[in-house]
Amino acid sequence: xxxxxxDHGHSQDRDHSHGHGHSHGHGEHGHSxxxxxxxxxxxxxxxxxxxHDAADSIDDAMEAHxxxxxxLKISLxxxxxxxxxxxxxxxxxxxxALLADTIHNLSxxxxxxxxxxxxxxxxxxxxxxxxxxxxxxxxxxxxxVVLMIALSSIVAAYEAIDRLINxxxxxxxxxxxxxxxxxxxxxEAVAVYRIRVGxxxxxxxLIADGVHARTDGFTSLAVVVGGIGVLLxxxxxxxxxxxxxxxxxxxxxxxxxRSVGRRxxxxxxxxxxxxxxxxxxxxxxxxxxxxxxxxxxxxxxxxDAILRTGPMTxxxxxxxxxxxxxxxxxxxxxxxxxxxxxxxxxPGV
Length: 349
Fold this sequence. Notes:
By secondary structure, the chain is of the alpha/beta class. The protein has helices spanning about 40-45, 60-95, 95-110, 110-120, 135-165, 175-200, 205-230, 235-265, 270-280, 315-330; strands at about 5, 285-295, 300-310, 335-345. The protein has a four-stranded mixed β-sheet with strand order 1-4-3-2. α10 links the parallel β3 and β4 (about 335-345). Mean pLDDT is about 75; it is low at about 1-60.
């Protein structure tokens, strides 16, 4: 199962010798999700609250797939219910603006469909053509969500500028405010749920979709603020708040692009590499960890490691490789595969 070799002249990708006389906190396996610093971090914190939820809370791949699909189903029902309530308000108010917002929320609710398809595809077994399986479809769906967030920012900015240049009186203000509140609450509930489940199973695409719902919720909230501004005799409040929301979405988009783009480029959070090395550090037979590589495939992790040990037989090396793989999976249950190669000194050296 694992390739092993005896090698005296190996190249060290990194010099990572480990002592075994230290202790670590093994009870906490959560990793952090760094918040961008400064101005970006302020707005990023508004839309995506920091969480200490581990991305390895679910150790079974099929269970993680199922929970992701369940989150999409429930959130889709919530968004459709929100759209129906807004449609009823539109029928009472006859507001064209509310009709446009309702149609917008309906189209945003349907962005969950590509991600749903990706989760279903990820459950298919690998084939001779797709030997790594279909989990990467999830990352492609995340890219689609990023494009939708960008489109939301552009549309919001365009509508705000158009209202500044061509002011239009806001009718049925009370109904407009009511529909905005409904839209905000519905989108925020969906956002909280998707982000929580996304962090739990380690899905950047599901988190991005939650962020998308949150941006739409704040857009609806901007409608509320604008309506209140009109009631207070400041009609320009609506487009001005719209521009501010558009700018906040654009700032948020930068962090989301980095997160999804890192997955597509096989980037990995450094703390996860540290955790894998920490898991290998438990094994007394290992003299040093020559290399550890990890990458996300959808919301699951695949990786490999090269270990250096003292003199041992091929049988002992094979047994150690299995032991090392088991240790990594114990510390990181969302790791599906961890190929380990043991480089052992020849007996008598």
